[in-house]
Amino acid sequence: MPDLHFMTAAELAAGYRARSISPVEVTHALLDHIGARDRFIDSFLTVTSERALDDARRAEKQFMRGEDIGPMQGIPYGLKDIIETAGIRTTGQSRSLANHVPAQDAMVAARLAAAGGVLIGKNTTWEFAHGGAAWDVVGPPAHNPWNPEHHPAGSSSGTGAAIAAGFITTGIGTDTGGSVRMPAAACGIAGLKPSYGRVSRRGIFPNSFSHDHAGPMARNSRDVALMLQVIAGYDPADPGSADIAVPDYLAALSGHLKGMQLGVPWDWLEQAGCSDGTMAAFKEALHVLESLGARSVPVTLPHLDAFSDSKKTIAMSELFSIHARTLREPPELLGASLRHRIQCGALIRAEDYLRATRLRARLCTAMQAVFKTVDLIICPCTEPAGKLEQTPPAAMFAKKSLTTPFNSTGNPAISVNMGFSTEGLPYSLQIAGRLFDEASVLRAADAYEQAAGWLAHHPALFREAVLDTA
Length: 470
Hints:
Blueprint: H1 9-17, H2 23-37, E1 44-47, H3 49-64, E2 76-80, H4 107-114, E3 118-123, H5 157-164, E4 170-175, H6 181-187, E5 190-193, E6 213-218, H7 221-231, E7 261-264, H8 266-272, H9 276-291, E8 295-298, H10 304-328, H11 336-346, H12 350-370, E9 376-380, H13 404-409, E10 413-420, E11 426-433, H14 438-452, H15 460-468
Parallel strand pairs: 2-3, 2-4, 7-8, 7-9
Antiparallel strand pairs: 1-3, 4-6, 5-6, 5-10, 9-11, 10-11
Helix pairs in contact: 2-3, 5-6, 7-14, 10-11, 10-12
Protein backbone atom coordinates (compact mmCIF):
# COMPACT_ATOMS: atom_id res chain seq x y z
CA MET A 1 0.00 0.00 0.00
CA PRO A 2 2.06 2.98 -1.23
CA ASP A 3 -0.12 5.52 0.58
CA LEU A 4 1.14 4.26 3.95
CA HIS A 5 4.25 6.38 3.61
CA PHE A 6 2.40 9.65 3.05
CA MET A 7 -0.73 9.12 5.11
CA THR A 8 -1.27 11.65 7.85
CA ALA A 9 -1.45 10.74 11.52
CA ALA A 10 -5.18 11.40 11.48
CA GLU A 11 -5.62 9.08 8.49
CA LEU A 12 -3.51 6.36 10.11
CA ALA A 13 -5.47 6.66 13.36
CA ALA A 14 -8.75 6.24 11.48
CA GLY A 15 -7.37 3.25 9.57
CA TYR A 16 -6.17 1.55 12.75
CA ARG A 17 -9.54 1.94 14.42
CA ALA A 18 -11.34 0.67 11.30
CA ARG A 19 -8.94 -2.33 11.20
CA SER A 20 -8.12 -1.53 7.54
CA ILE A 21 -4.40 -1.13 8.29
CA SER A 22 -2.16 -2.12 11.19
CA PRO A 23 0.65 -0.34 13.04
CA VAL A 24 2.98 -3.24 12.30
CA GLU A 25 2.25 -3.04 8.58
CA VAL A 26 2.89 0.69 8.56
CA THR A 27 6.10 0.39 10.57
CA HIS A 28 7.53 -2.30 8.27
CA ALA A 29 6.70 -0.14 5.24
CA LEU A 30 8.45 2.91 6.70
CA LEU A 31 11.51 0.98 7.83
CA ASP A 32 11.86 -0.57 4.36
CA HIS A 33 11.51 2.88 2.77
CA ILE A 34 14.19 4.31 5.07
CA GLY A 35 16.52 1.40 4.38
CA ALA A 36 16.19 1.87 0.64
CA ARG A 37 16.16 5.66 0.34
CA ASP A 38 17.63 7.49 3.35
CA ARG A 39 21.08 7.26 1.78
CA PHE A 40 19.96 10.09 -0.51
CA ILE A 41 19.12 12.54 2.29
CA ASP A 42 20.77 11.26 5.53
CA SER A 43 17.79 12.23 7.68
CA PHE A 44 18.49 9.64 10.41
CA LEU A 45 21.46 9.29 12.69
CA THR A 46 20.00 6.19 14.37
CA VAL A 47 17.13 4.02 13.13
CA THR A 48 15.53 2.17 16.06
CA SER A 49 14.07 -0.75 14.10
CA GLU A 50 13.62 -3.17 17.02
CA ARG A 51 12.11 -0.51 19.28
CA ALA A 52 9.79 0.59 16.46
CA LEU A 53 8.49 -2.90 15.83
CA ASP A 54 8.03 -3.52 19.56
CA ASP A 55 6.07 -0.28 19.85
CA ALA A 56 3.98 -1.19 16.79
CA ARG A 57 3.18 -4.70 18.05
CA ARG A 58 2.15 -3.29 21.41
CA ALA A 59 -0.16 -0.78 19.74
CA GLU A 60 -1.62 -3.45 17.47
CA LYS A 61 -2.41 -5.72 20.42
CA GLN A 62 -4.06 -2.81 22.21
CA PHE A 63 -6.28 -2.13 19.21
CA MET A 64 -7.17 -5.81 18.97
CA ARG A 65 -8.20 -5.77 22.63
CA GLY A 66 -10.25 -2.63 22.11
CA GLU A 67 -7.88 -0.44 24.13
CA ASP A 68 -7.82 3.11 22.76
CA ILE A 69 -5.27 5.27 24.58
CA GLY A 70 -5.36 8.32 22.34
CA PRO A 71 -4.56 9.86 18.95
CA MET A 72 -0.82 9.02 18.92
CA GLN A 73 -1.43 5.29 19.40
CA GLY A 74 0.53 3.45 16.69
CA ILE A 75 1.68 6.70 15.00
CA PRO A 76 5.31 6.68 13.75
CA TYR A 77 7.52 9.55 14.91
CA GLY A 78 11.14 10.65 15.00
CA LEU A 79 13.08 12.65 17.56
CA LYS A 80 15.77 15.21 16.88
CA ASP A 81 19.03 13.78 18.21
CA ILE A 82 19.33 16.32 21.02
CA ILE A 83 16.29 14.74 22.74
CA GLU A 84 17.39 12.12 25.24
CA THR A 85 16.07 8.57 24.93
CA ALA A 86 16.67 5.94 27.59
CA GLY A 87 18.95 3.19 26.30
CA ILE A 88 19.22 4.77 22.83
CA ARG A 89 22.28 6.72 21.72
CA THR A 90 21.74 10.48 21.76
CA THR A 91 24.70 12.40 20.33
CA GLY A 92 23.61 15.94 19.50
CA GLN A 93 25.46 15.19 16.23
CA SER A 94 28.68 15.86 18.16
CA ARG A 95 31.80 13.73 18.47
CA SER A 96 31.95 14.89 22.09
CA LEU A 97 28.90 12.70 22.80
CA ALA A 98 29.36 10.08 20.11
CA ASN A 99 28.71 7.21 22.54
CA HIS A 100 26.29 8.90 24.94
CA VAL A 101 23.41 6.62 25.97
CA PRO A 102 21.00 8.34 28.37
CA ALA A 103 19.45 6.57 31.34
CA GLN A 104 16.15 8.47 31.09
CA ASP A 105 13.79 9.77 28.44
CA ALA A 106 13.27 13.47 27.93
CA MET A 107 9.78 14.49 29.00
CA VAL A 108 8.55 14.83 25.40
CA ALA A 109 9.89 11.36 24.59
CA ALA A 110 8.24 9.90 27.69
CA ARG A 111 4.89 11.48 26.86
CA LEU A 112 4.95 10.20 23.28
CA ALA A 113 5.87 6.70 24.44
CA ALA A 114 3.10 6.73 27.04
CA ALA A 115 0.64 7.83 24.35
CA GLY A 116 1.44 4.72 22.28
CA GLY A 117 3.61 6.31 19.59
CA VAL A 118 6.05 4.28 17.50
CA LEU A 119 9.63 5.60 17.71
CA ILE A 120 11.29 5.10 14.32
CA GLY A 121 14.60 6.74 15.22
CA LYS A 122 16.76 9.75 16.02
CA ASN A 123 17.02 12.41 13.36
CA THR A 124 20.03 14.31 12.06
CA THR A 125 20.54 17.80 13.46
CA TRP A 126 23.16 20.53 13.49
CA GLU A 127 25.77 19.99 16.18
CA PHE A 128 24.04 20.73 19.49
CA ALA A 129 21.31 22.37 17.39
CA HIS A 130 23.63 25.25 16.54
CA GLY A 131 26.69 24.36 14.49
CA GLY A 132 25.22 24.69 11.02
CA ALA A 133 25.53 22.10 8.25
CA ALA A 134 28.89 20.44 8.89
CA TRP A 135 30.93 17.45 7.79
CA ASP A 136 33.28 17.21 10.80
CA VAL A 137 30.65 15.87 13.21
CA VAL A 138 28.87 12.56 13.89
CA GLY A 139 27.40 11.70 10.52
CA PRO A 140 26.79 13.83 7.40
CA PRO A 141 24.27 16.69 7.25
CA ALA A 142 20.74 16.06 6.04
CA HIS A 143 19.65 16.91 2.49
CA ASN A 144 16.38 18.35 1.21
CA PRO A 145 13.99 15.70 -0.21
CA TRP A 146 12.66 18.13 -2.83
CA ASN A 147 16.18 18.41 -4.24
CA PRO A 148 19.02 16.62 -2.41
CA GLU A 149 21.51 19.22 -3.69
CA HIS A 150 19.74 21.73 -1.45
CA HIS A 151 19.68 21.99 2.35
CA PRO A 152 16.65 21.27 4.57
CA ALA A 153 17.53 24.24 6.82
CA GLY A 154 18.18 23.65 10.49
CA SER A 155 18.65 22.77 13.07
CA SER A 156 15.79 20.22 13.10
CA SER A 157 16.96 19.32 9.62
CA GLY A 158 16.64 15.54 9.66
CA THR A 159 13.19 15.61 11.22
CA GLY A 160 11.84 17.93 8.54
CA ALA A 161 13.49 15.95 5.75
CA ALA A 162 12.29 12.58 7.08
CA ILE A 163 8.66 13.73 7.28
CA ALA A 164 8.72 15.21 3.77
CA ALA A 165 10.31 12.03 2.38
CA GLY A 166 7.64 9.77 3.88
CA PHE A 167 9.98 8.11 6.39
CA ILE A 168 8.03 9.22 9.47
CA THR A 169 4.59 10.68 10.00
CA THR A 170 5.41 13.12 12.80
CA GLY A 171 8.44 14.32 14.75
CA ILE A 172 9.77 16.58 17.46
CA GLY A 173 12.21 19.40 16.79
CA THR A 174 13.54 22.29 18.83
CA ASP A 175 13.47 25.99 18.06
CA THR A 176 15.78 28.68 19.48
CA GLY A 177 15.63 31.11 16.56
CA GLY A 178 13.53 29.23 14.01
CA SER A 179 14.86 25.67 14.10
CA VAL A 180 11.44 23.98 13.92
CA ARG A 181 9.88 26.46 11.51
CA MET A 182 12.79 26.83 9.07
CA PRO A 183 13.17 23.08 8.34
CA ALA A 184 9.38 22.83 8.08
CA ALA A 185 9.52 25.71 5.60
CA ALA A 186 12.38 24.25 3.57
CA CYS A 187 10.77 20.82 3.43
CA GLY A 188 7.19 21.90 2.71
CA ILE A 189 5.63 20.55 5.92
CA ALA A 190 4.14 22.07 9.09
CA GLY A 191 6.19 22.91 12.18
CA LEU A 192 5.05 24.71 15.32
CA LYS A 193 7.09 26.61 17.89
CA PRO A 194 4.68 26.66 20.85
CA SER A 195 4.59 29.41 23.46
CA TYR A 196 7.62 29.50 25.74
CA GLY A 197 6.78 27.15 28.60
CA ARG A 198 4.01 25.21 26.83
CA VAL A 199 6.16 22.09 26.17
CA SER A 200 8.74 20.74 28.61
CA ARG A 201 12.41 20.89 27.62
CA ARG A 202 13.58 18.55 30.37
CA GLY A 203 16.04 16.04 28.92
CA ILE A 204 16.74 18.11 25.79
CA PHE A 205 20.28 19.39 25.27
CA PRO A 206 20.10 23.16 25.82
CA ASN A 207 21.13 25.79 23.31
CA SER A 208 19.85 28.98 24.94
CA PHE A 209 17.97 28.51 28.21
CA SER A 210 15.90 31.64 27.70
CA HIS A 211 14.97 31.07 24.04
CA ASP A 212 14.72 27.27 23.61
CA HIS A 213 11.40 25.68 22.66
CA ALA A 214 10.44 22.11 21.69
CA GLY A 215 7.69 21.64 19.15
CA PRO A 216 5.86 19.21 16.86
CA MET A 217 6.47 18.75 13.14
CA ALA A 218 4.19 16.85 10.75
CA ARG A 219 2.88 16.73 7.21
CA ASN A 220 0.07 19.15 8.09
CA SER A 221 -1.07 21.37 10.93
CA ARG A 222 -3.91 19.02 11.96
CA ASP A 223 -1.29 16.40 12.84
CA VAL A 224 0.73 19.09 14.61
CA ALA A 225 -2.35 19.80 16.75
CA LEU A 226 -2.74 16.09 17.47
CA MET A 227 0.87 15.81 18.57
CA LEU A 228 0.82 19.01 20.62
CA GLN A 229 -2.14 17.63 22.57
CA VAL A 230 0.12 14.83 23.79
CA ILE A 231 3.33 16.74 24.57
CA ALA A 232 1.93 20.00 25.99
CA GLY A 233 1.55 20.50 29.71
CA TYR A 234 3.23 21.62 32.88
CA ASP A 235 6.45 19.96 34.04
CA PRO A 236 7.64 21.13 37.48
CA ALA A 237 11.12 19.79 36.70
CA ASP A 238 11.55 22.31 33.86
CA PRO A 239 12.14 25.78 35.35
CA GLY A 240 10.70 27.40 32.24
CA SER A 241 7.51 25.33 32.18
CA ALA A 242 4.21 27.19 32.52
CA ASP A 243 1.38 25.85 34.69
CA ILE A 244 -1.37 26.79 32.24
CA ALA A 245 -4.31 24.63 31.16
CA VAL A 246 -3.99 22.85 27.80
CA PRO A 247 -7.06 23.31 25.55
CA ASP A 248 -8.50 20.87 23.02
CA TYR A 249 -6.49 21.79 19.93
CA LEU A 250 -8.33 19.56 17.45
CA ALA A 251 -11.66 21.03 18.53
CA ALA A 252 -10.39 24.48 17.51
CA LEU A 253 -9.95 23.50 13.86
CA SER A 254 -13.18 24.98 12.53
CA GLY A 255 -12.18 25.32 8.88
CA HIS A 256 -13.08 29.01 8.70
CA LEU A 257 -11.55 32.27 9.92
CA LYS A 258 -14.65 34.44 10.15
CA GLY A 259 -14.01 37.46 12.37
CA MET A 260 -10.24 36.94 12.66
CA GLN A 261 -8.02 40.00 12.40
CA LEU A 262 -4.64 39.32 10.75
CA GLY A 263 -1.74 41.73 11.23
CA VAL A 264 0.76 42.01 8.37
CA PRO A 265 4.16 43.59 9.25
CA TRP A 266 4.93 44.86 5.75
CA ASP A 267 8.03 46.69 7.04
CA TRP A 268 9.51 43.37 8.13
CA LEU A 269 9.15 41.93 4.62
CA GLU A 270 11.09 44.88 3.22
CA GLN A 271 13.74 44.64 5.94
CA ALA A 272 14.17 40.90 5.27
CA GLY A 273 14.55 41.52 1.53
CA CYS A 274 11.85 39.03 0.53
CA SER A 275 12.22 37.93 -3.08
CA ASP A 276 9.62 38.65 -5.74
CA GLY A 277 8.60 34.99 -5.76
CA THR A 278 8.11 34.90 -2.00
CA MET A 279 6.12 38.15 -2.09
CA ALA A 280 3.84 36.84 -4.83
CA ALA A 281 3.23 33.59 -2.95
CA PHE A 282 2.55 35.51 0.27
CA LYS A 283 0.03 37.84 -1.36
CA GLU A 284 -1.77 34.84 -2.80
CA ALA A 285 -1.81 33.19 0.65
CA LEU A 286 -3.21 36.40 2.12
CA HIS A 287 -5.98 36.30 -0.48
CA VAL A 288 -6.80 32.71 0.53
CA LEU A 289 -6.94 33.64 4.22
CA GLU A 290 -9.24 36.57 3.48
CA SER A 291 -11.51 34.32 1.42
CA LEU A 292 -11.94 32.22 4.56
CA GLY A 293 -13.39 35.18 6.45
CA ALA A 294 -10.30 36.84 7.92
CA ARG A 295 -9.49 40.53 7.59
CA SER A 296 -5.90 41.76 7.20
CA VAL A 297 -4.50 45.04 8.48
CA PRO A 298 -0.97 46.44 8.46
CA VAL A 299 0.89 46.45 11.79
CA THR A 300 4.12 48.08 12.87
CA LEU A 301 6.65 46.24 15.03
CA PRO A 302 10.22 47.01 16.11
CA HIS A 303 12.92 46.54 13.46
CA LEU A 304 14.06 42.97 12.81
CA ASP A 305 17.59 44.00 13.76
CA ALA A 306 16.47 44.82 17.30
CA PHE A 307 15.12 41.30 17.80
CA SER A 308 18.23 39.78 16.23
CA ASP A 309 20.68 41.85 18.27
CA SER A 310 18.93 41.02 21.53
CA LYS A 311 18.54 37.32 20.81
CA LYS A 312 22.06 36.72 19.52
CA THR A 313 23.72 38.55 22.41
CA ILE A 314 21.73 36.58 24.98
CA ALA A 315 21.88 33.24 23.17
CA MET A 316 25.61 33.36 22.44
CA SER A 317 26.34 34.11 26.09
CA GLU A 318 24.21 31.19 27.19
CA LEU A 319 25.71 28.90 24.53
CA PHE A 320 29.19 29.64 25.87
CA SER A 321 28.10 28.92 29.44
CA ILE A 322 26.81 25.52 28.32
CA HIS A 323 29.81 24.39 26.26
CA ALA A 324 32.75 26.29 27.76
CA ARG A 325 34.22 23.21 29.47
CA THR A 326 34.24 21.14 26.27
CA LEU A 327 35.60 24.09 24.32
CA ARG A 328 38.59 24.23 26.67
CA GLU A 329 39.19 20.48 26.86
CA PRO A 330 39.03 18.67 24.46
CA PRO A 331 38.02 21.29 21.83
CA GLU A 332 38.84 19.00 18.89
CA LEU A 333 35.72 16.96 19.69
CA LEU A 334 33.59 19.92 18.58
CA GLY A 335 33.13 20.81 14.94
CA ALA A 336 34.90 23.92 13.62
CA SER A 337 31.67 25.83 12.99
CA LEU A 338 30.29 25.26 16.48
CA ARG A 339 33.66 26.11 18.08
CA HIS A 340 33.61 29.46 16.29
CA ARG A 341 30.11 30.24 17.47
CA ILE A 342 30.79 29.22 21.09
CA GLN A 343 33.93 31.37 21.20
CA CYS A 344 31.89 34.42 20.26
CA GLY A 345 29.98 34.04 23.51
CA ALA A 346 33.20 34.33 25.50
CA LEU A 347 33.63 37.89 24.25
CA ILE A 348 30.26 39.20 25.44
CA ARG A 349 30.44 41.31 28.59
CA ALA A 350 27.95 41.16 31.46
CA GLU A 351 26.96 44.72 30.55
CA ASP A 352 26.10 43.61 27.01
CA TYR A 353 24.06 40.67 28.26
CA LEU A 354 22.05 42.85 30.66
CA ARG A 355 21.42 45.51 28.02
CA ALA A 356 20.21 42.78 25.65
CA THR A 357 17.79 41.43 28.27
CA ARG A 358 16.41 44.93 28.84
CA LEU A 359 15.97 45.38 25.09
CA ARG A 360 14.21 42.04 24.96
CA ALA A 361 11.74 43.19 27.63
CA ARG A 362 10.87 46.24 25.52
CA LEU A 363 10.45 44.07 22.42
CA CYS A 364 8.12 41.73 24.31
CA THR A 365 6.01 44.66 25.44
CA ALA A 366 5.78 46.00 21.89
CA MET A 367 4.80 42.59 20.50
CA GLN A 368 2.05 41.97 23.05
CA ALA A 369 0.70 45.49 22.45
CA VAL A 370 0.21 44.63 18.76
CA PHE A 371 -1.56 41.41 19.73
CA LYS A 372 -4.13 43.50 21.59
CA THR A 373 -5.20 44.84 18.19
CA VAL A 374 -5.01 41.66 16.05
CA ASP A 375 -5.57 37.93 16.57
CA LEU A 376 -2.62 36.74 14.50
CA ILE A 377 0.47 38.07 12.76
CA ILE A 378 1.28 36.59 9.35
CA CYS A 379 4.34 36.86 7.12
CA PRO A 380 6.58 34.56 5.08
CA CYS A 381 8.77 32.22 7.11
CA THR A 382 11.92 31.94 4.96
CA GLU A 383 13.06 31.98 1.36
CA PRO A 384 13.16 28.61 -0.47
CA ALA A 385 16.13 26.44 0.48
CA GLY A 386 19.53 27.15 -1.05
CA LYS A 387 22.30 24.74 -1.98
CA LEU A 388 23.72 22.46 0.73
CA GLU A 389 27.26 23.68 1.23
CA GLN A 390 29.71 24.72 3.90
CA THR A 391 29.07 28.32 4.94
CA PRO A 392 31.31 30.60 7.01
CA PRO A 393 30.32 30.37 10.69
CA ALA A 394 29.91 34.14 10.86
CA ALA A 395 27.25 34.06 8.12
CA MET A 396 24.54 33.47 10.72
CA PHE A 397 25.20 36.92 12.20
CA ALA A 398 24.46 38.68 8.91
CA LYS A 399 21.01 37.23 8.19
CA LYS A 400 17.77 39.03 8.93
CA SER A 401 15.31 36.54 10.38
CA LEU A 402 11.51 36.55 10.28
CA THR A 403 11.41 33.70 12.79
CA THR A 404 13.64 35.03 15.61
CA PRO A 405 11.21 37.70 16.89
CA PHE A 406 8.81 35.06 18.16
CA ASN A 407 11.59 33.32 20.09
CA SER A 408 12.45 36.63 21.71
CA THR A 409 8.85 37.21 22.78
CA GLY A 410 7.82 33.59 23.39
CA ASN A 411 4.73 33.78 21.16
CA PRO A 412 3.58 30.64 19.32
CA ALA A 413 4.30 30.49 15.58
CA ILE A 414 3.87 27.88 12.86
CA SER A 415 5.25 27.45 9.34
CA VAL A 416 3.15 25.78 6.65
CA ASN A 417 3.62 25.18 2.92
CA MET A 418 2.76 28.22 0.77
CA GLY A 419 3.37 26.77 -2.69
CA PHE A 420 6.48 26.17 -4.77
CA SER A 421 9.16 28.14 -6.56
CA THR A 422 9.96 27.72 -10.24
CA GLU A 423 12.72 25.33 -9.08
CA GLY A 424 10.18 23.15 -7.30
CA LEU A 425 11.21 24.15 -3.77
CA PRO A 426 8.63 25.07 -1.11
CA TYR A 427 7.58 28.57 -0.13
CA SER A 428 6.45 29.01 3.47
CA LEU A 429 3.84 30.96 5.42
CA GLN A 430 4.38 31.86 9.08
CA ILE A 431 1.41 32.42 11.40
CA ALA A 432 2.00 33.69 14.95
CA GLY A 433 -0.44 34.19 17.80
CA ARG A 434 -0.97 35.51 21.28
CA LEU A 435 0.85 33.87 24.17
CA PHE A 436 -0.54 30.38 24.81
CA ASP A 437 -3.08 30.74 22.00
CA GLU A 438 -1.74 27.91 19.86
CA ALA A 439 -5.37 27.02 19.16
CA SER A 440 -5.92 30.12 17.00
CA VAL A 441 -2.59 29.62 15.23
CA LEU A 442 -3.50 26.02 14.40
CA ARG A 443 -7.03 27.00 13.36
CA ALA A 444 -5.70 29.48 10.80
CA ALA A 445 -2.97 27.12 9.58
CA ASP A 446 -5.38 24.21 9.10
CA ALA A 447 -7.99 26.33 7.32
CA TYR A 448 -5.33 27.75 5.00
CA GLU A 449 -3.89 24.32 4.20
CA GLN A 450 -7.31 22.88 3.38
CA ALA A 451 -8.16 25.81 1.09
CA ALA A 452 -4.77 26.28 -0.58
CA GLY A 453 -4.43 22.71 -1.80
CA TRP A 454 -0.70 22.13 -1.32
CA LEU A 455 -1.00 19.10 1.00
CA ALA A 456 -1.19 16.53 -1.83
CA HIS A 457 2.31 17.43 -3.09
CA HIS A 458 5.23 15.17 -2.14
CA PRO A 459 8.88 15.08 -3.29
CA ALA A 460 8.97 13.24 -6.61
CA LEU A 461 12.11 11.20 -5.88
CA PHE A 462 10.55 9.61 -2.79
CA ARG A 463 6.99 9.40 -4.11
CA GLU A 464 8.17 7.58 -7.22
CA ALA A 465 10.30 5.23 -5.12
CA VAL A 466 7.23 4.26 -3.11
CA LEU A 467 5.19 3.68 -6.25
CA ASP A 468 7.98 1.57 -7.76
CA THR A 469 7.82 -0.82 -4.81
CA ALA A 470 4.03 -1.01 -4.63
